[in-house]
Amino acid sequence: MRRRLTSLLVLATAAALLPFGTGTASATGTTTADPCAPYSAPAPSAAPAAGSDRAPLPPNAAAFMAAYRAWGERPTVEAYMQLFTANGTLMDTGLSAPIGAAAICAQMKSLLKEVPDYTFEPLPGTVSSKDGRVLYVKARNTGTVTVPDETGEPGKEKEIPFDYITTHRLVLDGSRVEQGRRFWDQTELFRAMSPSLPKLFANLTPVAPAPPRTDDRLTAWNTRDSAALVAGVGNLAKLTGPGLDTPLVDRQSARAYLERFFTRAHALNLTPGHTVRQGNVTYREWVGRAVVGPENRDITYGITERFTRTAAGAVEWDLAFETLDLVATQCEIAELRAILFPPAGPTQPCTPPAAGR
After folding, report:
1. Which pTM value belongs to this model?
2. pLDDT of 220-236, one tens digit each?
3. Type and span of the H or E element at 164
């Protein structure tokens, strides 16, 4: 089902503050001049750059965003590691637990080696808690990877550009990251190397209205109550989320989207994460576990919701979550991820998916 690609094809997934991977990577040969050397002392806080986030972001959050944006424009390993505290940790889709500095740095080294044209652009709409402790950032990730062409013959390659959006929830200590988590849809990137990945949200059929079973949003997610989730978004203007080429603009279609999600996400056991409200934007984070995919595997899982109230009083609802675990088997996912972290020994090819999956 998959073709082995040259080098580390999708190291782009390691980008943008929360690197993707198994957490088994490590840095070697560290010296005092190594960019992966342990962080020791804080650098002076950077002032917000012209045109970057200014008030109402608190000064520490604005300083972080200035450094973050500068790194994204000209990424280096050294500047990347200076975004974190000494004990900063990262959690990403596909990980069972947060990773620390050694794995973070090793992955970023590989990314910038294999994707030298990588860029990271924070998008407008960054929001922070009043004390500057918690920050939500949406960002655009772009670059080019080199893959074998359709013939698969040695030396015959082609370049494939990538362009995807990530959502980051960051807990800051001063102007550096103490804890971070990234929410994004891996399928968006992996489909470039595996076009046969199912399109979970294709051909949605609107679902008729129904009375909600709860008025508590956490309960609604954990009990898969699509009617309650839709009802909880007053004056819904549009819904955007993974797998959608265009926004959904009515509640029946929004329910269809959620119901399709729930066909592959079961036994949700989420708890509230960080909620941040700033101006007309509210972010909510739900993290925990879920039973997902064609094999009903139990994995760590997370969802963020962003609600933006327009000048007319309508609400734009944006969801961020991962769908690769919902549409692919564990073997298929392991084969994809092995491109980033090749196994020590030989691996067996995956059994082709059942017809119609």
Report:
1. 0.83
2. 999 999 999 999 999 99
3. strand 157-173
